[in-house]
Amino acid sequence: MTAKGRRSRDAIVEAAARLMHDRGIAATSLDDVLAASDTGKSQLYHYFDDKQDLTVAVLHLQFERVLAAQPCLRDPACHDLGRWRDEVLLAHRVHQFGNCPLGVFAGQVDDSPVLRGELRALFDQWRQAIGELAGRALRHGRVRADVDPAGAGLVLLSALQGGTMLSHLHGDGEPLTRALNGAIAQLT
After folding, report:
1. CA 80 → CA 44, 48, 105, 131, 145, distances in Å?
2. CATH code for the domain defined by 1-48
3. N or C terminus: fewer CB in 10 A for the chain?
4. Domain map (residue ranges) of the chain
5. Distance (Å, rounded) from C-alpha 39 to C-alpha 36?
6. In whole angstroms, what is the distance from residue 77 CA to residue 69 CA?
7. Radius of gyration of the chain measured on its C-alpha atoms
8. What gap in Å lies between CA 159 and CA 6, rounded to an integer?
9. Would you state the pLDDT for residue 5?
10. Which of 13, 162, 103 is closest to 179 using CA atoms?
11. Would you tell me how many other CB atoms lie within 10 Å of the CB of residue 100?
12. Which CATH superfamily groups domain 51-187?
């Protein structure tokens, strides 16, 4: 793919991600995406077979955004759950406690086995990355010796998702902060 092609594809996915996050997948038409990305139909269909294919690309973009905001998950030297919590809280403050970039799609993909499977796989990767962080914390004595890293990944991701939703509803970070602090306290 040429640099110009990459820019066109990226513009399409960025516009679709913004619209689908704000309006929902069903309420975002391909014409809306074309208008927002200032691209043509031939470009869109050059890169994507259909709306489902574009939506898969959006889910992956949102997942990459989530991980970019939590760099300690990709840092094999990090073993500090507090640092991860701080990264999560900072990202949510910066975005004024909006919906999770990935979690917002959870109720929107039920009718599509492909999209539901993609979203589930991305959440599984996220949970695994958090579990790996918990495993590093375990090896460095930062959590209790009986902590199961995989189980910790699930507990921490659940706290993050629930806290994010409640913080969004209340318009402040207290629910997310308390949820993460409570989950981490159970592990230490």
Report:
1. 42, 40, 29, 12, 15
2. 1.10.10
3. N
4. 1-48, 51-187
5. 8
6. 17
7. 18
8. 36
9. 73
10. 162
11. 20
12. Tetracycline Repressor, domain 2 (1.10.357.10)
